[in-house]
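Action item from last week, closing it out:
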Amino acid sequence: MHLQQIPAHPPMIQLRFFRCTLILWLTLPLVVLDGAQAQDRPARVKVDTVVKEPLRQTVPILGRIVAKEQGAVAAGVPGPLRKVHVQVGDKVKVGELLAELVTDMREAMIARSAADLTIHEARKNAAKAQLLIAKDEMQRLEKLKNSSAFPRARYEDQQHEVVRFTSQLAEASAAFTRTDAQLRAARIDLARTQIRAPYDAVVTRKHVSAGAYLRLGDAIVTLMAANDLEVEADVPSERLGGVIPGVKMDAVFDNGESIQVTVRALIPDENPLTRTRPVRFSANLDPKAAIAANQSITVAIPAGEPRQVVSVHKDAIINRKGQQLVYVVADGKANIRLVQLGEAVGPRLEVLDGLAPGEVVVVRGNERLRPGQAVEPGKT
């Protein structure tokens, strides 16, 4: 019996195979053409410019808030204390009454000096009047010098009277001046029995109470100018090169709030143990903020004097096999270049060799670039 031979490829399968092969051969040139066009299309990248700028490295120095005015208000005269008009925590204005001493003894001394002054004034006026009379009489006698009736003995006595009354007037005037000075001193003492605030401040301590006897210079209350604060930091001597009056610096509180401070003064008083010198910074502090004296604040002090450096953005750097490379854009193409880097300048890096100011480098999209590839740059 003869078996019928089955074809290896049925007609339908052969037809489908032919169609697939035909489609593949027709579309392959298009795929190759699209790939070539994709390679020739400029790559879209972000670029940045190499610049020359001052390098300002900083080191954190722990500082503190200090009051420009702070200290004890002392008694200007001795005596028993009548009353203290303030308590700890009170806010006072300049000239406001803080405390007062007993004044009765000083008031009595003022009354006595005033009375003495009146007496000495009367004596001075009497001596002055008597001197005028004596001078008039002597002038009358002088007119008789050329006559036979000239009383020489009386004239000489009158001269003595003029000298005596002149002396009395000088003595009375001196006594008047001395008593007047005593009266003014007594009034000054009386005024000093009222102790007033020398500046706007907050009372931070009360040293005495009513009834205490105060000696000259004894502290009554301690004041602090809470609305007139600045920053102080002990800066190492080797870091003072960049600390120049008028230079602005950044400072940060413990809660992360940052402010800008300005160097006001370098205090020429070095601590031999820490090798540091105090530096005062003025700051525009918000009076409504809860800022207190001795509150900590960190100041970014320059590590040294600023110097001009060429810098490139850190995103332009490609690290390959221990080398630093960048793509430099020129004439619409990205060319790779080896660079030597130095210190960091914020988000940028110092360029020691390989780049010049004004050159344009790729900072985004540089990982996919090929040397010499055309690029379509855009600013970051």
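Closing note: The chain has a mean pLDDT of 86.
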